[in-house]
Every structure is written in C-alpha cells, then in structure tokens.
C-alpha cells in the first residue's frame, strides 16, 4: 500500500474520530492531509522507502493563533501523540511535545513559510524566480483529506504553478543551456579528446532538458532523485526519459559519441516541436539558442524580459 493510502486509512480510523470527539469546537478551522517532504507525498514510495521517515501519520494544519490559540494547539499535539504508534505493521515515530517537523500539528503559515518564504502564498516575480522548484513541488503535492476553513487550499491554489512569465523565463534559460552543453560543447569536448568533459556536458544537457520538459508540462520538477520517475509520468515528452538515461549511463567512446550526439539532437528537435505546438517560439530552425531568445521575447513583463536570459536558472 502506498504511503498516502496508508496515512488516509490511519486518519479515518483514528485521527478523524479523535478530532470529532475531542476538538469539535475547532474542527471548522482545521485542515488535515499528507503533504510536503517524503517520497510518499509524491506517490513515489516503494519497499525501499520504508527504511526511514515512513509512517502512518498525517498533518493537522492550523490557522493563526487568533483563531486556534496556543493552548488548543498544544492539546491537539498531545492528542495526536497518543494515537496508536503502529498501524498495519508500520510504526509511527514518537513525537516530542511540540509536534513533529513532517507530520503532526503544523501552523499553515509556518508550513508555507518554510517551503516558499511566504506565509500566505503571495510572491513577487523575483521571489518566484528565486524559489527552488522542489520546494514548490512539496508545497503543492500530496493529498488534503479535508480543509474546513479553506485556507490551506487557497494558498495551495496560489502556488499551483508558476506565473506564465516566470515559466517562460525559466524555459528560455534552460533552452539556452541545453544549446550550449548539448548542441555545442558535447561535440567540441569529444573533438578535444576530453571524454570526461563530454560526459559533464551530457549531464548538463540532460539536467536542463528535463527542466524544460517539466516546464512544457506545467508540472513542478521534484528533488533530483525522483525526476526520472516523475518524468516518465508526464503527458508530454515522457519518452525522452529512456534516451536521457542512455545518454548519462553510457561512455563517450568513439563508437558511441556520434550516436549520442544524434540522440541529443533528437531530444532537442522534440522539444522544439513542443515549443511550436504551444506557440512559444517564432524561430524556425533546429538551433535551441535561437528558440531560447524567441521564448524570452514572448515575456510580457518588461523588467523580467530584459533581465539576463539565465536569471531564472
């Protein structure tokens, strides 16, 4: 059973009855669910995931102290800590009196403040540019079991995805770095007799190509160890994952270098086709650098458009 399913079953069997019986007066102000850090919040957990930070727990999200005061928060924390420590063979780690960092009682403002730097989800364009994408993924992943006040959902909706101009700035920067590393520097490193440097160019190309594909799908790219798994689930360009895996797991011998170069060009061509499908570029060529600048030209905000093309990467 996946971690989200396990946590929801545990919540329905023990958490919700506890809240109904002991905290009916504040229940209208609470939200519960499982989101944030951890493979289970993305649905990527497997047998290996259970070796650490895996539990049948959940989060109780509170609004500000003017609505749910400190004493009530403490009583909620204590009640949560008294819930069964094991469920369906999975142990729940003990929590200290002030709750756990990943599960337990959490202020909504503190959760989003930690993930995004904003307690209410309001971000300037520059703040959007500076935020690690994986943090936004953790702020919007998982499953909300209920949100009676609606505050948690309101903020998650604000953070659901990048503003379009930010998406375009990030896309333009990643396209340019794809061009530099894959279309230009990979072959030059091979010609210089530097296979290790060529492989670094491959890593750079794949890294930025993955970022571009997530941006084209309007999906936040997660922490690096989950990127291939997430990429394979995307509706657009998911088949590139197999080619990318080939690129970074093979050497740069003479027998493979030319084949890898054509694989790089193939990925570039597919991404250019998707740029055209989304009407994001006016360039008509196979040069990713030209498409990068064309995408940047499509940014509406003057200040953002005129920032360095790599400002968002």
Give your account of this protein's structure:
With 313 residues, this protein is of the alpha+beta class. The protein has two domains: 3-158, no CATH class; 164-306. The chain has helices at 3-22, 70-81, 108-116, 125-130, 133-140, 151-158, 164-191, 195-217, 227-231, 240-249, 254-277, 288-297, 302-306; strands at residues 31-34, 59-62, 86-87, 90-91, 104-107, 143-147. The chain has a four-stranded mixed beta sheet with strand order 5-2-1-6, with helices on both faces. The protein has a two-stranded antiparallel ribbon with strand order 3-4. α3 packs antiparallel against α5 (133-140). The longest helix is centred in the middle third of the chain and has 28 residues, at 164-191. Mean pLDDT is 92; it is low at 96-100.
List the helices and strands and how they pair.
Layout: H1 3-22, E1 31-34, E2 59-62, H2 70-81, E3 86-87, E4 90-91, E5 104-107, H3 108-116, H4 125-130, H5 133-140, E6 143-147, H6 151-158, H7 164-191, H8 195-217, H9 227-231, H10 240-249, H11 254-277, H12 288-297, H13 302-306
Helix pairs in contact: 3-5, 7-8, 7-11, 7-12, 8-10, 8-11, 10-11
Q: TL;DR of this structure?
A:
This protein has helices spanning 3-22, 70-81, 108-116, 125-130, 133-140, 151-158, 164-191, 195-217, 227-231, 240-249, 254-277, 288-297, 302-306; strands at 31-34, 59-62, 86-87, 90-91, 104-107, 143-147.
The strands making up the biggest β-sheet line up spatially as: 5-2-1-6
Main β sheet profile: 4 strands, mixed
Count up the domains.
Answer: 2
Say how many strands there are: 6
Fraction in helix: 40-55%
Distance between the termini: 37 Å
